[in-house]
Amino acid sequence: MTAAATTPAAIVVRTPAEIKRSRYLGFTYLFLAVVVLWFFARWSVDLGNFTFKLARPTDPSAPDLTMSAGRVTLIVGVVLAAMGGVQLARGFGKMNNFVLSIGLFLFIFAFLAWATAQSSIGAFSMVGMMKTTIVRSVPITLGALAGVMSERVAVINIAIEGQLLAGAFVAVVVASPLTGGEDPTLILGSPIGGWIGVGAAILAGMLLAWVLAVLSIRYVVDQIIVGVVITIFVVGMTSFLALRWLADNPELNKGPIFKSIGIPLLADIPFLGPVLFDHNIFVFGSFILVAFLTFLLFRTRWGLRARAVGEHPKAADTLGVNVYRTRYLNVIIGGAVAGFGGAFFTLGSVGRFDENMTNGRGFIGLAAMIFGRWHPVGAMAAGLVFGFADAMSQTLGILQTGIPSEFLGMVPFIATILVVAGLVGKARPPAADGQPYIKQ
Amino acid sequence: MATLELRGITKRFPGVLANDSVDLEVSSGEILGLLGENGAGKTTLMNILYGLYSADEGEILIDGVPQSFAGPGDAIAAGIGMVHQHFMLVPVFTVTENVVLGVEPVGPGGVINIKEAKQEVREISQRYGLEVDPDAIIEDIPVGIQQRVEIIKVLFRNAEFLIFDEPTAVLTPQEIEEFFGILNGLRDAGKAIIFITHKLKEVIEVSDDIAVLRRGAMAGRADPATTTEADLANLMVGRPVELVVAKGAARPGAPVLTVADLVVVDDRDQVAVAAISFDVKAGEIVGIAGVQGNGQTELVEALTGLRGVAAGTVTIGDKVVTHATPRQIHEQSVAHIPEDRQRSGLVMSFSITENMVLDGYYHEPYSRGIKMDWDQARAKAGELVEQYDVRTPGTEVAANTLSGGNQQKVIVAREFGREVRLVIAAQPTRGIDVGSIEYIHERIVEERDRGAGLLIVSTELDEVMALSDRILVMFDGKVVAEYEGGAVTAEEIGLAMAGAAP
Amino acid sequence: MTEPQTPAPDNGPDSASGSRWAAFMDDLTGVNVDWRSALLVPALAITAALAVSVIIIVVSDIELWREFSLSALGDAIGQAGSAMWALFTGSFGSLAAVSSTLAFSAPLILAGLSVAIGFKAGLFNIGAEGQMLMGGMAAVALGITIDIPVFLNVPLAVIGAMVGGGIWGGIAGLLRARTGAHEVITTIMLNSIAGLAVIWMLSTDFFQPAGRQDPVSEDIAVSARLPRLLGFLDRTDLRVHFGIIIALIAAYAIYWLLYKSTIGFEFRAVGFNPDAAHYAGMKVTWLYVSVMALAGGLAGIAGMTQINGLLYRASPGFAAGIGFDAISLALLGRSHPAGVVAAGFLFGALRAGGLEMQVVTDVPIDLIGVIQALVVVFIAAPALIRAIFRVKTGEEIGQLTTGWGT
Prior knowledge:
heterotrimer, B: alpha/beta, 6-stranded mixed sheet, 22 strands, 32% helix, C: mainly alpha
């Protein structure tokens, strides 16, 4: 007998996929550097200073941030070019995503510097934009949380859009007739009728989630199809009822808007106070839900079983965990979260319902869930990114950059595509995600 | 002293009588070997015992008291524990999380007391000599250790009756020895054990008593002290079984497959095949032995164009095909029997005809231009079904209506149904009945004698030894040993499979 | 279309050639399906959905909620009854109604084929709406710049629309193939992007007529219009146009492609089992791109029929939600071209009848979206139909899509 030749296994250090992604990132940085230097820096030289306002008149005072646009864009451009060089030469290893976020941050900063300097105002409210970021992130985060709850037990919830829309509609239709007339006492920023509206929205979300659960768990219908159909149903139903009820009865479409509550002391911190601690209950609710659901999923018995059901339902079943009940429960809790998020669109924002007013936020929430790697904290981080994209397109509209507003409106959608295309690396969904569990 | 008894268990599935009035009994301090070939109904029987299925007739008694199990929870409560053939472990959980799942020690608010859980895992692993790190993530530990976790899981639930379903399938011969040690230890600790297998040698070695299941019914019992492998085989299949494949001496010709310094990475970007070199000559069968997960899958995928090659060269005949596509390989007259027939070998909802032309559909006579000629395809399929003895009502039924053995024959027929010079077969007989196994082995030898070179990759050491003219052993992505067929013992190969220097 | 020997048995059972019909029906959902149940389930599903919609109309009557009385209940039921009647008369009640049904059916069938071919290849194309927009805009761009004889200009519009929609669909296919980005999410996002892109395009000098500020395009050339089929009757209310012929031709072409060609074999193999397709030497990633491009092309033609057949110019909402109806439609038609054609006629009838319903009975047309969703729910879960009607039906549709992990 002969022993075959063997070689030490230390052959591949960086895998092809890694190298490829590293190259993509490197060229991205170089491209951004070119954009910054060629466009922003060149134009900004003559523009003078820009100002980011860190406080509005009513906020705790904070100094303005004023800098020379030419200098800032030049520096950012050079830094981005250097980053591109390093990335192409040897990569940043485990720091890739961190460096990517810094790169994007710098680019956006330079972009805003240019946009502000070129506008006739020469300044914009940073505190306002950050506040808007948080507010706009709320429905996306809540939608993503609904997705997390459901997909952690391996039920794909693409009906988030429908759940949000139903919540928005039900909240205003229930709350409006209950809150007409006299000046009521407010509980956490809203009359009791508003709270009943929120409760009804939560119930609506749970009801739709129950339908999703029954069809996908009991009747084993393809989960993505069920989700899409539920969304189509809700879009049709809310539009139908809006025309049938609200068009001729505007008093049914005039809900109480939840007022902001400043958290004592914290709200008085300059900049951070108004940005983080002066909001209505939906914003604080989403913060609390993120913390609570994280605790539930990763610290408790219930969470361990839920995750086991999502990863390996058969194993859970053989250990006496009730797979079906766990799935029903989680999907319905997710629905409750989405229903709450839906109420935000009406009672937490404009106070009235418009046809299809969620406008794809549920689907973006779905992307936020993927971006956030099926983790509540990640979902919130992703929600904030999308909220920021939203807020920035609004800000740029005010600054009149000459970029068509339609293009700015595309930013969140393009960001979503980039996210699911794995710009930030691949995440692993729960192993059984989307697969029905069939007991013999 | 506890006793578990099955009486008259009968279970019907649509069209199949899976268990036919089966009686069985096992007591504390005893290992009962349950023998039967694939599809004999062993797993069904055990799933009934474990509460996963409910029996149509018959009853389960513990110490003479009839039980009724609505689900595994009830069976667990009654003291039954099962180590499944496919481990029931959550890959992304830690050892401790897997062990406590379903019976978690909790504090206020449902918070898991992970510290206490870890302590208990440690205690059990010490008491029974099942060494394992409670904090390790399952997907990071080898299968042998995973099996220990499964056993700890069962013991954690205070099981008195332990069922092991094909526990040795994924282990090296050395790990099997170790496992038998554990099994004996558990028996000596007073546990009652049912050991399910289709391997004759093992059941004789470890059991105190043997029960043989055939086509769902109890075929007989045997005393391991007196019975022989041939007797058991006869009992298991219902007729004498050829334990060896009849074949003449090989007459190797020129190499048809040459592999030089081949490096392949797996899905997780880890090196799976580490600079392998070997060749396969015309007219010989080269077998690759090894425990599952030592790079065989990636090797076959790289050779057949399904997976990219990181370094090295692959040559078929005198054509370099290192970076060829599956189709280009196919066009080099290479037959490929894939490892997992349902996952990649067949489109289960396609008809037999469609499956028969799955890789040849694009050329004549099955199509001209982009127009399919289904009449030609049907004719060829009919011919192959006849020739390869595929038991089916017709060529237009879906592949998923066939038994595993007949599905495999469809693949073999498709791949051997044209002139080939190289056959790459992975696990060609996994999970199919003895009749089909014998048939496919004959065909493989026939291809060799016709002048084709064959590369057979199998985790069944017996199969590799029976078929091969030359045996390569893979361990950790490398070929660690090479033997002449027929001139080596299972023990020698076993050592090499475990990575011991030969 | 060079195969005259195989007529397309698109409508109704053809008892004369029973075996061919049976074989054809076998293709419907796969292999050896009992076609009686394949027709029974849709019929019962539609019945159930209409029944539920009657209940919705009655329950949503606001007068009933203000003050319940038997006479109010009677009024509500009366309204529901006349709504159903209007649904029928508006779709089949007159020549104009039938013409309207057919006119609505054309883009629905084409968009339905787009979604269906995706399902056959294991891809869920939710992007037909955006692909319609892009195809339609391509047709507008050609229609406002080129004026050549109609027998050249209409084919040109078809090709242009296919390219426009095909690129939009192909992007999703490319993303799936290259990066694994799930087409469900990318196509939804591409819909939103297309919607905004159309609004932007309609504000550019190229599309917008001089002097207009609202988002609308110039009129396309008369030679680019799809001829009215009943134009010889010289009535303006007979809107059925050549688009329905294009849709039927497309349906047959897709049928042939799926079941008689090597490309269709590859599509279906990838749809059922991408691993096996890869093993068999098919280029799975390339197939994803080509399926999505083809799907986009079909939806693009659907968008073209909206422009060149009905509206003659673009405004932001010209796709009219047809791309979303197409999802329900493809499911109702079980992703088979013949089923899609039948379902397309039904949905066209619902749209035509829905307009009549809204005008005559004041019941909002959005109800038909609800009806369609309900139909799909009942289709997708035959067990529900079994439970309601206590009949034996075929199997569930099962899993058509893949989750995020693959």
